[in-house]
Amino acid sequence: MSHESVIFQIGWNACINCGACIAVCPQPPGFVTSFNTIAVNTACDIACMACEIICPVSTIFHLKESEIANDPTFIQLNPRQY
Ligand code: SF4
Questions:
Q1: What are phi and psi of 25, to 5 degrees?
Q2: Which of 9, 21, 24, 54 to mutate to test ligand 1, by most ligand atoms within 8 A of the CB atom?
Q3: What residues are in contact with ligand 1 under a 6 Å CB criterion?
Q4: Which of 44, 78, 81, 82 is the most exposed, having the fewest neighbouring CB atoms within 10 Å of its CB?
């Protein structure tokens, strides 16, 4: 289990909006996207990876926060202020 915060990425074309990732997530309510999946714009400091494990279509991925600045593809897919 990682103790470094992570940022999740979801393959939106594969997601079936089943809600399993939210149901298993131990973060407080509100750690969600507007598509009712776990958040992709907020760092997760728990990093238990339960969402990745439970996703039935295996479309949740993550990077550690320290890795994000070195991954231009991730930055492109997650157009935030990195
Ligand atoms: S568990 Fe996977 S398929 Fe289900 S809503 Fe979350 S990202 Fe989408």
A1: -70, 130
A2: 21
A3: 10, 15-21, 37, 55-57, 59-60
A4: 81
